[in-house]
Amino acid sequence: MDGASIIICVTKKPIGRILVSDNSLNLEECRSLIGLYDRYTKSTCRRDYNDQPLLDYSTLRRVAKESASWVYAVTFRCKEKIALYFSTPGLFIESFFIACLFSGDSHIAHADNERREDGRWVPNHTPQRDYTGIAYLNDDFMGGDLVFPELNVVITPKPGLVVGSLVIAFVHAVPKVLSGKRYSLPVWFTLNSAKAMQV
Asked: Cβ distance 120 to 114 under 8 Å?
């Protein structure tokens, strides 16, 4: 990002096309989600683009059924917040997982339901995703901001912060985590009830 970038301070009002909601999860919930990740990631075979474990709902349901139900309830609260903000009541949870980026990890600029091909956006392997939300669980790391490069927006994670947006062509990236571990709870939402997550 160049010097013209806008730094979003999460204590100020959110910008119109992106929900930035402070204190959406409390610190105890954040710590509990981190604890679930640390405790159960050896049970999952799901991996992110950095080859780090992802704790998805089906794995969590298999190893800790009550915890899986609790995490689903947390994501449901995120869904309600995003549906209200974007005036879209017919949202369904499509999928979620608890994730961790380690020092040196990053995510290149991408959209969650499309990919660039010959200079235009085309559906990717998850075209059913209409909205995305991410709950941040900690801030004891360096780097790893959420960047919307085409909007010149940078959001610094902090515990309990939820960021939500439309998915289509909403390019975002995560620059390298410089030190520590960056925990989060990404959630995707769909308007198509047939693509809703089965619980």
From this structure: no
